[in-house]
Design a protein that fits this description.
The chain is built from four helices and 13 strands. By secondary structure, the chain is mostly beta strands.
């Protein structure tokens, strides 16, 4: 499961997406800023397919299914299993018609040692930027009142079986898209089953690397370069969020 990721070099990540799609994206310098500790409910840049091509938008992490838009207690879905997403009511329409790219520089998983949970940062080799395979849903009316403005669109990240590198820490990993697969995933028309299965396979472990990082990142409220610093020799007591 992917519940935390990093977009600390959004310029590199968005430039890589634009190159892979052979298309310019809308200017992002005014509203996209580096994030070292992205978590559920935060609004992040996402590339969706629009009428004129790739469209850069701000979306909130935690997909709200169409049938739940008007519920006062909305369920936020950060992830969807690639093996079943195309058949489940919460995800199947988005898989067919609203596949998006979620730019990233890496993601975190935690190793449990006794009572400690030690974070590790997973990236591509040479820390090349990439995109998660995402799906999204349009925003809906705010349940606070009929006159409230429409809420922001929401997205979810697809997960798959882990490769040999990730499996040492977790039994799932996000579907990682590279320049070869980004154009194949982005779209508003259903994918053939064999194409869908091909794209959502785990990325080869040989294309990735991982390293332990500071427990500062374990608190979801913490942000900044300290998230990527080496582990402390004597880690302080931190609240885990």
């Amino acid at each position: 499961m992917c519940i935390r990721y990093t977009l600390h070099r959004p310029d590199m990540a968005l430039a890589a997406l634009a190159d892979a799609l052979a298309q310019k994206l809308a200017p992002w310098s005014e509203w996209v800023r580096p994030r070292f500790n992205v978590t559920l409910t935060q609004v992040m840049p996402v590339v969706a397919a629009g009428a004129g091509g790739a469209d850069l938008r701000g979306m909130r992490w935690g997909l709200v299914p169409a049938y739940a838009r008007n519920e006062s207690q909305r369920q936020l879905l950060p992830n969807a299993k690639a093996e079943t997403a195309a058949t489940l009511p919460a995800f199947k329409h988005a898989v067919a018609r609203r596949r998006c790219l979620v730019p990233a520089n890496g993601f975190y998983e935690w190793q449990t040692l006794g009572k400690l949970k030690l974070p590790h940062l997973f990236t591509l080799k040479d820390e090349q930027p990439f995109a998660f395979a995402g799906i999204w849903e349009p925003g809906g009316p705010d349940p606070a009142g009929l006159s409230a403005p429409a809420s922001v669109a929401t997205f979810s990240i697809l997960t798959t079986e882990p490769n040999a590198l990730v499996s040492s820490l977790h039994d799932r990993m996000p579907v990682i898209l590279t320049p070869e697969t980004m154009p194949r995933w982005l779209g508003r028309e259903p994918l053939p089953d064999d194409e869908y299965r091909s794209i959502t396979q785990p990325l080869a472990a040989e294309r990735m690397q991982q390293r332990p990082v500071n427990r500062f990142v374990s608190n979801s409220r913490n942000e900044g370069p300290q998230c990527h610093e080496p582990p402390e020799a004597a880690p302080p007591e931190l609240a885990f969020g």
